[in-house]
Amino acid sequence: MTEFSVWAPNRSRVRVHNGPSVHEMAVGEDGWWRVEAPDAAPDYAFQLDDEPDELPDPRSRWQPDGVHERSRLYDHSEFQWTDDAWTGRQLPGGVVYELHIGTFTPEGTFDSAIGKLDHLVELGVDFVEVMPVNAFDGPHGWGYDGVLWYAAHDPYGGPDGFKRFVDACHNRGLAVLLDVVYNHLGPSGAYLDRFGPYFAGETIWGPTLNMDGPQSDGVRRYVFDNALSWLRDFHVDGLRLDAVHALSDRRAIQVLEELSSEVDALSVHLRRPLSLIAESDLNDPKLITPREAGGYGLQAQWNDDLHHCLHATLSGERQGYYADFGSLQALAATLTGVFWHAGTWSEFRGRHHGRRVNTLTTPGHRFLGYLQNHDQIGNRATGDRLSDTVSPGLLACGAAIVLCSPYTPMIFMGEEWAASTPWQFFASFPDPKLADAVRTGRREEFAEHGWAAQDVPDPVDPATFERSKLRWAEAETAGHAEMLATYRALIALRRSRPELADPRLAQLSVDIDEKNRVLVLHRGDLRVVCNLGGGRVEPPPGTVLFSSAEPGGPESVTVVEVSAGG
């Protein structure tokens, strides 16, 4: 017997279509409809009241024919794991590598990505952060338009494919973080509101969930169970929570706090660490403050202020939100205090923004620092990487600042060899009207910032997707190979010298020389000398542990172990 169940609290009749059979379901007081069916066929769908549509299961584990079609039964217990020896990995001390399955390899699948994991091991990273793999409409996209959150995207390899990928990571000593989206659903295939009161308004990206209105207990349970499923059933080691500032919740116990508690309980049961990492533009340390201290208890959050400081300083760009950044003073303050906007004025926002972090009690590993990421590349009009406009010497300086900081460093795929490929915004909605709306919306958005329509890549043109795929062969060619060697050396140095991974923010000091564009990080007995200018600087006396060029030369970084009293 196979049990079918679905939460539809306001419906008067629910049937399940299973193969050629149709079964009437019975409802309980909790709003869940259930029925047991003998000799169940693999594919099924639900029919609500007397509406004609057959709808996929909101908790579908497998959508082999797309998000509009029937769901397929899937038993998590049948997969043969080989990672029994894996005991997990704590985030502190780790280096994170962000990748997108569809563009990480030419084939764009979980299985093909396994073939590149040894590169990540040799690079020295500890965590692989995978952009969203939940089911969305069309074969390729960023993944943030997901509509069936429990199902791994079938064109990537489906649920078994993702499990093979996680299993292979663990057998190489790599932990896996998964990007999940709980602030909205995509525009195509979002049938949740047909089943119950899931929706409560709109974000700029799509419908948002009912986290605090009537019958929201069942909606929150949908979120919590999804998070726990990725961590338990797919053996994932942590979740990156997309744009949590867009979650609307007025309850006394906010959804992130409750999610943190649920995940902590699962971690105790599994006896391995599980991490929750927020993306937020609020600059609010409450997210990563322990629950017993009045916070939400997440393990970490992204720190866009550090990225903005680095990008503006290295590239010279000052348009948009970069107008608030660009000085070495801002960069130094962000390195020692986390946020540049910490209750201070933001010219871009036209108001005060953020809250100060207590650097005496808050460790730096609770914040991810990065020179590039998918958003900061892909949300540029042409998807150009920093390496398109910044010299190799300055790129090495930026990498050193991130990798020698008190923060948890993160690298975006291809960054380590200064990849020449762009990473552009792409989608593949089959509906022509929706595809045209995405195309038009993208061009209108960038027209407001001075870009001509013909300069903005067509997001639904397959060529845009193909252009965004990494070219692995170039990692061994001149210019790229040297950058790869720089990243490997800096990560190895971070691992070998405890001063460079020390998360105590109060122990870090930074010297700056705005005129000559020199910044020096003091990390115990080590000095990270970043010469961003065109002149030469004299490194402090001592032993040179690393230098990207001639020590102290123009646009170079030098790491020195200082002599006594140096």
Give your account of this protein's structure.
- The protein is α/β, with parallel strands linked by helices.
- Helices cover 26% and strands 20% of the residues.
- Among the domains are: 2-55, Immunoglobulins (Immunoglobulin-like, Sandwich); 506-562, Immunoglobulin-like (Sandwich).
- The termini are far apart.
- The mean pLDDT is 96.
Gist of the model:
The protein is an alpha/beta fold and 566 residues long. It contains 15 helices and 26 strands.
The share of residues in helices is 25-40%
Oligomer: single chain
Q: Count of helices?
A: 15
Main sheet overview: 8 strands, parallel, barrel
Distance between the termini: 75 Å
Mean pLDDT: 96
Q: Could you say what the CATH topology of the domain at 506-562 is called? A: Immunoglobulin-like
The poorly predicted ranges are none
Named at the architecture level, the CATH assignment of the domain at 506-562 is Sandwich
Indicate the proportion of strand residues. 15-25%
Describe the global form: globular
**Compute the gyration radius: what is it?**
24 Å
Write the layout of secondary structure elements.
Layout (H helix, E strand, L loop, with lengths): L1 E6 L6 E5 L2 E4 L1 E2 L4 E6 L5 E6 L22 E2 L23 E4 L1 H4 L5 H5 L2 H7 L3 E4 L3 E2 L12 E5 L5 H13 L4 E6 L11 H4 L3 E4 L4 E3 L6 H18 L4 E4 L13 H16 L4 E4 L21 E3 L1 H12 L12 H10 L6 E3 L4 E3 L13 E4 L3 H5 L13 H12 L4 E5 L19 H16 L14 H6 L12 H17 L1 H4 L7 E5 L4 E6 L2 E6 L10 E6 L8 E7 L4
Parallel strand pairs: 8-9, 8-21, 9-12, 12-15, 15-16, 16-17, 17-20, 20-21
Antiparallel strand pairs: 1-5, 2-3, 2-6, 4-5, 6-7, 10-11, 13-14, 18-19, 22-23, 23-24, 24-26, 25-26
